Structure formats: C-alpha cells, structure tokens
C-alpha cells in the first residue's frame, strides 16, 4: 500500500481510532529505537575489539597486495 493511500485511509477513521493508531505507531518506534538494529548493535560492540585486538585485523595488512590465483 502506498503512503498516500494509507494516509487517505487513516483520515477516514474516526478520531479515537486515529489516536489509537498514532499511539501504537509511536510505541513501536520507541521499542525499535531502544532495541535498535541487531547488526548495527553488534558492529558497535565489536568496534573497540577491532581497534585493540590486532589478531582480528591481521589480514587487512595485505589488502592492497596484488593477488594472483594459481590455476
């Protein structure tokens, strides 16, 4: 459903149902913000580890070395 169509449908609702819809939407947004994106949270948690633990980034030293696959 497109946003414009969704908005049209919302405006057709009685005021109390629109308020209910807004409250539920805000609640779900707050919950999502509080919990965040799991991948983003995990990346943020690992940032200090990658900065301090050279074993995790040892192969990045050869990122710019030319690589030729043996055939």
Give an overview in words:
The chain is mostly helical and 71 residues long. It has a domain at 12-58. It is built from 3 helices and no strands. It is elongated, with a radius of gyration of 24 Å. The chain starts with a helix and ends in a 19-residue tail after the last helix. The model has no long low-confidence stretch (mean pLDDT 83).
Rg, alpha carbons:
24 Å
- How many individual β-strands? 0
> Which bin fits the share of residues in helices?
55-70%
Instruction: Enumerate the spans where pLDDT stays under 50 for 5 or more consecutive residues.
Output: none
Structural class: mainly alpha
Overall geometric form: elongated
Terminal CA distance: 52 Å
Order of helices and strands: HHH
Strand content: under 5%
Largest sheet: none
**Averaged pLDDT, please?**
83
Number of helices: 3
List keywords for this structure.
single chain; mainly alpha; 0% strand
Give a nutshell description of this structure.
With 71 residues, the chain is mostly helical. 65% of the residues lie in helices and 0% in strands. The chain is built from 3 helices and no strands.
Record the SSE blueprint.
Blueprint: H1 3-12, H2 15-35, H3 38-52
